[in-house]
Every structure is written in C-alpha cells, then in structure tokens.
Amino acid sequence: MLVTDGILDRELQSEYTITVTATDAGSPPLSSVKVITILVLDINDNRPTFTQSESPRGYLVTKVVAVDADSGHNAWLSYRIIKATRPNLFMVGLHTGEIRTVRAFTEDDEAKQTVVVSITDNGPESLSATATVHVMIGDGLPVLNELFEFADESQHNDNLTLYLIIALTTVSSLLIMLISGVFYFKLCRRSYAYRSTTDSLPVFPTTYLPPFTDISPQTKTIGQHKNPRQL
Length: 231
What we know:
Elements: E1 15-23, E2 31-39, E3 60-63, E4 78-84, E5 90-92, E6 98-101, E7 112-120, E8 128-138, E9 141-144, E10 149-152, H1 153-199, H2 217-223
Antiparallel strand pairs: 1-2, 3-6, 4-7, 5-6, 7-8, 8-9, 8-10
C-alpha cells in the first residue's frame, strides 16, 4: 500500500514516478521491479490573480485607422495627439496610428482618460480630421471604453464660417436699423420744434386798408348841386 506523507499540489508537481521493488526471503532472494506513475488531479484551490499590476512603457492601448480617398502624396497620413487628459501618459505613432503608454499609471491618474488624435493628409493645403478615444484604467491596465468619435475639421470650419457670416449680417442689420432710428427721431424732433415755434407767433391780417368807399366822379357832381330852394 502506498501512502502519501504530505499534500500533493498539482500546481507544484502534476506527475510522480515511483519505482517499487519486491524481494522474497529465499536463497538466493528473488525480486521484481514495478514502476508506478501517479497523476495528480486538479482541484479548484487557487484564486485568480493578475499577472501584471501596471502597464509598462509602450503598452499598446488601441490603434487609430484612417483612410484618404486621394492618391499619391496627398493620401499620406500623419497622426498626432493634440489633446489629452494627461499629456505625458500616451503617445501615438506618427504613421501607424498606434496609441501606446508612455509610462506606468499611478494613483494620481484619472480613471477615465480622453485622447484626441489629429489625422492630417500630405496635400499642399493639408486637410485634417480628429478622433476622440476614451480609455478607462482598470487594475493598472488601460481598457478601451468607447468607440472612436471622428470629426471632420474642414466641415467644422465651414460651419463656423457660416455661423460667423450669419452673426455679422445680423449685427450689421441691427446697426443699420439703430442708425436709421436715430436719424428718424432727430428729424421728427426738429419738425416738431419748428411747428411749435410757428404756432406761437402772432397772426396779423393780410391787409390794413379802411373799409371800401366809393369816390366816383358822379358822386362828386351830385354833391356840388345847389339846394333847389335857393333857385
């Protein structure tokens, strides 16, 4: 009978080989050899543990991939980080778009990190777009939290230009209306002052001649006749 004198641990050794020799008491003694192989079965006696407590420098977080419909030099793309929660925590490959860690995470680092990557083509007048990557730090390792959020900067600039034109037009219209209102107010005020002045002046008749008297020659002749009683 084989009896163990201790606990067998499969994680330390999963297989044992034992050689057993049986010898009788005859003269001369005879013996026989038996090789026994013992396999240790696994039981659930270990808790899970993390093999890595922090990310080393150069740990690949994710990869930003962009395409350009142009051809030749115009389609050569460059990747740069233009904004990040921690500027010294991530780096991006200039032509690969691979986002990697620059250093190990510390307790001072925020649990949620945001990295904004700019993708620029190689045209004479470079066009660009941005990709926003959200990363969660869990147990010292970065985990991609959300999908990329792409934004076309050229479209954003066009919208901004349109908004500026609308705002400028509105301000100009309001300014013109204000100036017109001021001139109209001054004109009405001047007209009212003129009417008030003329209404207060005295009103005189248009003529100063005495009442009409008829001094025709006939009347004078009649006035020169003698009294009939004197004839």
